[in-house]
TrEMBL record:
InterPro entries on file: AAA+_ATPase, ABC_transporter-like_ATP-bd, FeS-cluster_ATPase_SufC, P-loop_NTPase
Keyword terms: ATP-binding, Nucleotide-binding
SUPFAM superfamilies to which the protein is assigned, alphabetical: P-loop containing nucleoside triphosphate hydrolases (SSF52540)
Source organism of the structure: Streptomyces lavendofoliae
Pfam families the UniProt entry points to: ABC_tran
Protein name: ABC transporter ATP-binding protein
Length: 254
């Protein structure tokens, strides 16, 4: 069983000619088969954590470690992270000119699996996964992220997740910009991957609503660049009722 271990992670960004520390000692362990929700106010550093794990060059690791089964993730290139079994939805947030969804998915699957999927079975696999996500087959021929709506981006994300079957998946704001129907379809996709039993999921969100569809095993409150409280699913209910105020008083938020 794969284990992602984040230890005392400190991360800074350069902004306005100054160095700003955003992550201030994040500790978290995610094992295959577990679902963790990270919840917190806007600006607390949740996306910074996701980008840092994805290896985004804008974010400088100034302290701490991230390992996957003892292997140093921070030393890995973006592609190596994917091959090691990490799925980071925000890895390719940009348009990729001239690359269709279909080709992009096959290239990604080839990188992750170490060999190109057989074309006939692959086409079928993609078609079926798209049907489950209520996606128009024509979507496969569009260029990656070109003119994608918020909902299409999220579906594309879950389509990748279903096809790539990572060990650990990190999903940032998977619920933002989705109407209720799309939220349900996307959540069902995440749950299908979960039920396969061999993925660990880190679900990062500001809102509690996605947790009506995806039940986390562990809930963490993120404020001021670190995890300030951890608990079970009942912590999400408390956050839904009370909000984040008690965590951000006294300037605890970044
Ligand atoms: P969250 O996802 O919890 O809303 P973010 O990680 O997006 O929080 O942002 C945390 C803080 O870091 C904010 O104050 C934000 O302005 C700052 N920040 C994040 N990324 C950058 C960046 N690339 N350049 C400058 N500031 C950034
Ligand atoms: Mg520290
Ligand atoms: Mg964010």
């Amino acid at each position: 069983m794969a284990t992602l271990e984040i230890r005392d992670l400190h991360v800074s960004v350069e902004a306005d000619n100054a160095t700003k520390e955003i992550l201030k000692g994040v500790d978290l362990t995610v094992k295959q088969g577990e679902t963790h929700a990270i919840m917190g106010p806007n600006g607390s550093g949740k996306s910074t954590l996701a980008y840092s794990l994805a290896g985004h060059p804008k974010y400088t690791i100034t302290g701490g470690t991230v390992t996957l089964d003892g292997e140093d993730v921070l030393e890995m290139s973006v592609d190596e992270r994917a091959r090691a079994g990490l799925f980071l939805a925000m890895q390719y947030p940009v348009e990729i000119p001239g690359v269709s969804v279909s080709n992009f998915l096959r290239t990604s699957a080839t990188a992750v699996r170490g060999e190109a999927p057989k074309l006939r079975t692959w086409v079928k696999e993609v078609k079926e996964a798209m049907q489950r996500l209520n996606m128009d087959p024509a979507f496969a021929e569009r260029n990656v992220n070109e003119g994608f709506s918020g909902g299409e981006k999220k579906r594309h994300e879950i389509l990748q997740l279903e096809l790539l079957r990572p060990k650990i998946a990190i999903l940032d704001e998977t619920d933002s910009g989705l109407d209720v129907d799309a939220l349900r379809i996307v959540s069902e996709g995440v749950n299908r991957v979960r039920e396969s039993g061999d993925v660990g999921t880190l679900l990062i969100t500001h809102y509690t609503r996605i947790l009506r569809y995806i039940k986390p095993d562990h809930v963490h409150v993120f404020a001021g660049g670190r995890i300030v409280e951890s608990g079970g699913p009942e912590l999400a209910d408390k956050l839904e009722a009370e909000g984040y105020e008690s965590y951000t008083k006294g300037g605890a938020s970044a």
